Amino acid sequence: MMNLLSDIIREDEKEFSDLKYIIKRKIGFNCEDYKQPHLKRRLAVRLRATESKSYRDYAQVLSKNEDEINKLKETLTVNVTELFRNPETFDSVRNNVLPELIKQKGINKVIKVWSAGCSNGEEPYSIAIMLNEFLGSSAKRYNISIQATDIDDDSIAKAEMAIFQPKQLEKIGQERINRFFVKKDNNYQVIDEVKRLVKVKRHDLISGPKFSGFDIIFCRNVTIYFEQKLQEILYMNFYNALNDGGYFVMGKTETLVGPSTQLFKRFDLKERIFQKREKI
Ligand SMILES: C[S@@+](CC[C@H](N)C(=O)[O-])C[C@H]1O[C@@H](n2cnc3c(N)ncnc32)[C@H](O)[C@@H]1O
């Protein structure tokens, strides 16, 4: 009986690893880097939807059905987001980070921000609006660029459009809608002046190239799904990608771990904002 039971378990685990291998081959998504219980929960969504009884059944569906590949990709990447998500974090960036940053800048008028794991663009356009509001008429004197990256092609395509449905704008207030959006059919598009600050591109945080020279990096609600070892590596990558004195903004439920905890200064712990120490 014991043997039979453990055989079944072994078989499941084997099917699970076979499926992970197929997913890696078909969609380039490295399942091993993600927290395994999270991965299993996400896979269960697709197994149920396709009425697959086992990982092996599902692997067969995946090999025969192109459409399922896209659906799985969507399910695995979890791109839930909203404009000005956690508004209190944006308030802290506006009231505490931006005044310091502008003071540090002096005559250097370049501001570089990275929204890593930008989903459909809600985060980078919120950042662009916030900068525009903060700088007011002096915004023209700054060379602002917001790099928005994500691994998911559908999200990137949406982020490039910068079009949002009326429902998505409900929480941001009429004044912002009037000032920063234009009506496009039944939806709203970010005005050109703000849209052109955001450059969207595909980038895998795990295997993609390293970047540098940023004043602020937002990486919120992305690393939460990754194994701790990988989180530690990514936080060091973010540290290295920042200018001295630059800021790293994490998600409200994320925690800094690994060697970078010794290197970053806690700037606003409640809002998960950290600062790269200035060189002495
Ligand atoms: C829950 S959304 C977070 C969006 C936004 N940052 C926010 O906080 O609202 C997570 C995003 O991370 C992206 N993502 C997942 N793994 C990634 C990876 N390895 N590299 C880049 N982006 C990734 C997903 O595609 C998804 O759009």
State the gist of this model.
It is built from 11 helices and 10 strands. With 280 residues, it is of the alpha/beta class.
Question: What does this entry look like structurally?
Answer:
There is one protein chain. With 280 residues, the chain is an alpha/beta fold. It has two domains: 2-77; 87-276, Vaccinia Virus protein VP39 (Rossmann fold, 3-Layer(aba) Sandwich), CATH 3.40.50. 48% of the residues lie in helices and 19% in strands. It is built from eleven helices and ten strands. The protein has helices spanning 2-27, 36-49, 55-64, 66-77, 87-105, 122-135, 153-161, 174-180, 192-195, 228-241, 260-263; strands at residues 110-116, 143-150, 163-164, 181-184, 187-190, 198-202, 214-219, 242-250, 264-268, 273-276. A seven-stranded mixed beta sheet has the order 6-2-1-7-8-10-9. Helix 1 (2-27) runs parallel beside helix 3 (55-64) and helix 2 packs antiparallel against helix 4. The longest helix has 26 residues, at 2-27. The chain is globular. It binds S-adenosylmethionine. S-adenosylmethionine (SAM) is lined by residues 77-81, 85, 117, 119, 123, 150-152, 155, 204-206, 220-222, 251.
